[in-house]
Design goal:
Elements (H helix, E strand, L loop, with lengths): L2 H24 L5 H5 L19 H20 L1 E8 L5 H9 L16 E5 L7 E3 L4 H15 L3 H7 L4 H11 L7 E3 L1 H20 L17 E4 L13 E6 L11 H10 L3 E7 L6 H12 L6 E6 L11 H12 L9 E3 L2 H17 L9 H11 L11 H15 L2 H13 L1 H32 L2 H57 L3 H8 L11 E3 L2 E4 L2 H55 L1 H6 L21 H5 L2 E8 L3 H14 L11 E9 H60 L3 H40 L1
Parallel strand pairs: 1-6, 1-7, 2-5, 7-8, 8-9
Antiparallel strand pairs: 2-6, 3-4, 3-5, 10-11, 11-13, 12-13
Helix pairs in contact: 1-3, 1-16, 1-24, 3-16, 4-12, 12-13, 12-14, 13-14, 16-23, 16-24, 17-19, 17-23
Organism: Citrobacter enshiensis
InterPro entries: Dynamin_N, G_DYNAMIN_dom, P-loop_NTPase
Protein name: Clamp-binding protein CrfC
């Protein structure tokens, strides 16, 4: 590691960040609106800055971003943001990376507040530091007053009150505040669970939780602990810190999407935890959109959790990587940065190996439930407590479970590499943020300077044109909506035609297996079987042996499932392709409709990063999960008959009757009860046909609902973004006109200030570019 070089680069990054912060503080002087509303500048709203008009909130957000990078540079800290939905296994993944349990797992959202987990060599016992606890203390006092006047019955109806929530309510009533320091796993769990229950309680009591007080990354809770996999590695000049982020709309708090976007934008890299069993769900799509939005400024990685649930019909690792990289993430992440894993297996194996190393044996499974989970995963469902006494066998089982978890590869190629190069990640993050700041600010200042050189009359004309553009935008929305609905109708007609054709093909192919000759052929058994051959009685297939009946039924079901699986693959592939084409078509419709407006304000819109896109949730293959097994479970009917026609017994009975001169001798005693097994082919065939028709109809409804939601949301977002761009442009032109109407001497002075500011930001950009290039060179050197 080039320690001296890294030190010099960090000094340069710190200089540029301080210069940018100083430069940023000067920008309100170029905006009359911001000068008039200076108090607004203290807000830390997460709204995106709409260039070229720098709002007061936008400048505050940029200030927070640069300050965050300065804090990371002074510590040479790489912040790896972990993002995922509630059920994706985010906490389990973090525990697997750390090597021990530092975050609790509950069957409800557990990250209402972001939490840092910092690798601290030598810190065997985890410690939580919560220095910025004052806003929580204020909230607790408010809730205490609200609880005194609260109807407990109403609160119980509005909130699920369990043991943890009861404990929190008692704590609030008794005035017990949160501590600033928690040592050990259990006290940390209790603190984090209480914080998240506090969010739920605040919502139920209609009290605002102080989320804005924790927007700055230095204000959120920090857990310091040594990561097991990094213990003993050479100390690198930098720190690795995980950032546990709230999932989108977690705990019914929509604003958490904004908080998530803020935290991701300030991270050095992002690790998405995806659920292998829910890859194409709407909730996972929200996470993919959030990380794709920051994909150009920070490196992206993905762990596809729950890969242990893969069966023989599921996508393998390569297929998963290709689907996520190409279809789901639209190329914003490469397949080589996607790792299918089992976080639970990785965590359990890590925990077991750590316990064996430190204590020489596993804890009592009755006292620590994770031991039971480990034993079942590593030893099988039939494990016994005595099995845990064979330490060498347990150690070997833990190693095998770790291998099966597939965690070794990302741990070596990514986590350990991130730790070794934490300082470079921190530097690269700072250089990218500096470049982004310089580019956006240069565009804003150029616009301001140009406004001072343009005649007042021309500015007024441009303001009027933008107003006309806004009116045209509103008028275009209706016509675009008609064209969009037309394109959607065409796509849905094509999809329905495809489903109709597949439905007809399925019914036709299934019908062939119920023809008499086909059924009889499947009922044939080997020549030496003593069981009578199957018979056809009307619509009934009659068999004389239960195992034979089960075999025949299994053959029919297997033949039908081959047809259904083939149709499933065809429909899934075709629908995915058709909806990708629909996305492209709708993007073209929007672009064509807005081209006249965009041509007039092209520069301003391009500075705003405006893009037209409707994004559908990727077609969910689980919609086509045919399951016909229940239809066959009760298809066999047993019928008991008295068998008086057995040829062998009948001839013997006749012989004895003749000898004894008693014609009916033995008739009652030798009548045997025989069972035969009936399969109603007509009923089974009709049930299958009805199942296929009903299933295809459900797919049609699901597709229609999915497309309707995606198109409605996409159109709303599209026109809102476009309108925001035009409104921002109009406001900037008005401000330029206001400044242009000042005395010529004031205009000249402002022009000179703008030129100086433009020169400064140009220097920032050039030096940041050189810094980025040096860091990239150093990265390449370290990886060779």
């Amino acid at each position: 590691m080039h320690t001296q070089t890294i030190y010099e680069l960090s000094q340069e990054a710190e200089r540029l960040l301080l210069l940018s912060l100083s430069h940023l503080r000067q920008l309100p002087a170029f905006s009359p609106t911001m000068l008039e509303s200076g108090n607004e500048g203290n807000e830390t709203s997460g709204d995106n800055i709409p260039p070229p008009h720098f709002s007061a909130r936008g400048i505050a957000a940029q200030h927070a971003m640069l300050n965050n990078e300065l804090r990371k540079i002074t510590r040479l800290e790489m912040v790896l943001a972990i993002v995922g939905t509630m059920k994706a296994g985010k906490s389990t993944t973090i525990n697997a990376i750390v090597g021990t349990e530092v975050l609790p797992n509950r069957n409800r959202p557990m990250t209402a507040l972001p939490t840092l987990i910092r690798h601290t060599p030598g810190q065997q016992e985890p410690v939580l530091l919560f220095s910025h606890v004052a806003p929580i203390d204020t909230l607790m006092h408010t809730l205490q007053q609200r609880l005194q006047a609260c109807d407990r019955q109403h609160l119980t109806l509005a909130l699920e009150i369990d043991k943890d929530m009861n404990s929190l309510i008692q704590r609030i009533e008794q005035g017990e505040a949160f501590e600033r320091h928690y040592l050990g796993a259990q006290p940390i769990f209790h603190c984090l669970k209480s914080l998240n229950d506090l969010v739920r309680l605040s919502k139920a009591l209609e009290v605002d939780f102080p989320f804005s007080a924790y927007a700055a990354i230095e204000h959120i809770p920090v857990i310091e602990v040594e990561f097991v996999h990094l213990a003993g590695l050479e100390n690198a000049p930098g720190q690795l810190t995980l950032l546990d982020t709230p999932g989108p709309n977690e705990a019914g708090q929509p604003h958490l999407q904004t908080m998530l976007n803020e935290q991701l934008a300030r991270a050095s890299a992002v690790l998405a935890v995806m659920d292998y069993t829910q890859l194409k769900s709407i909730s996972d799509d929200e996470v993919r959109q959030a990380i794709a939005a920051v994909g150009k400024s920070v490196p992206l990685y993905a762990l596809v959790n729950k890969f242990d649930q893969k069966d023989r019909n599921s996508d393998d690792a390569e297929q998963v990587r290709a689907m996520i990289s190409g279809t789901l993430m639209k190329g914003s992440i490469t397949p080589g940065k996607i790792y299918p894993v089992s976080s639970m297996w990785g965590y359990l194996a890590n925990r077991a190996r750590h316990e064996l190393t430190v204590h020489g044996r596993l804890p009592d499974p009755q006292e620590q439930r994770w031991v039971q989970d480990f034993a079942e995963a590593a030893l099988g469902r039939r494990w016994r407590t005595a099995d845990l006494d064979d330490i060498e066998h347990i150690r070997h089982a833990a190693d095998l479970l770790w291998e099966d978890s597939l965690f070794e590869h990302p741990m070596q190629t990514f986590i350990q590499a991130a730790y070794a190069n934490a300082s470079l990640y921190a530097l690269r993050s700072a250089s990218h943020k500096l470049l982004n700041y310089a580019q956006s600010t240069r565009a804003y200042l150029d616009f301001r300077f140009h406004g001072l050189t343009v005649a007042q009359e021309k500015l007024q004309v441009n303001i009027t044109r933008v107003e006309e553009d806004l009116q045209q935008l509103r008028a275009s929305q209706a016509s675009v909506g008609d064209e969009v609905r037309h394109e959607v109708a065409l796509a849905m007609d094509a999809a329905n035609a495809l489903l109709n054709q597949q439905e007809a093909d399925i019914l036709r192919d299934i019908g062939t297996f119920f023809r008499v000759e086909k059924v009889v052929a499947m009922s044939k058994h080997d020549t030496f079987s003593p069981v009578a051959e199957a018979e056809i009685e009307g619509e009934m297939l009659v068999l004389h042996d239960e195992s034979q009946a089960q075999v025949v039924l299994s053959k029919i079901r297997a033949s039908c499932e081959v047809v259904l699986l083939k149709a499933q693959e065809n429909v899934g592939r075709e629908l995915a392709l058709r909806f990708e084409q629909l996305e492209s078509t709708l993007a073209r419709v929007f672009t064509d409709a807005m081209r006249p407006i965009e041509a007039r304000v092209k520069e301003a819109l391009s500075h705003a990063g405006f893009r037209a896109r409707i994004s559908f949730p990727a077609f969910h293959a689980a919609l086509l999960n045919f399951n016909t097994r229940p239809l066959f479970n009760e298809a066999i009917t047993q019928e008991n008959l008295q068998d008086a026609q057995n040829p062998r017994s009948a001839s013997v009975r006749k012989t004895f009757s003749r000898w004894l001169n008693q014609p009916n001798w033995g008739g009652r005693d030798y009548v045997e009860a025989k069972a035969r097994y009936l399969i109603d082919l007509n009923t089974l065939h009709a049930s299958l046909d009805e199942y296929v028709r009903r299933f295809c109809q459900q797919i049609r409804k699901a597709l229609a609902a999915q497309v309707d939601v995606a198109v409605t949301a996409g159109m709303t977002t599209f026109f809102a973004d476009f309108s925001q761009c035009l409104s921002g442009l109009q406001e900037s032109l008005r401000e330029s006109l206001t400044m242009r109407q000042q005395h010529e001497s004031a205009v000249a002075a402002l022009s000179q200030q703008l030129q100086h500011s433009i020169s400064t930001v140009a220097w920032i950009y050039e030096d940041s570019r050189l810094l980025r290039d040096d860091i990239q060179t150093l990265f390449a050197t370290e990886q060779t």
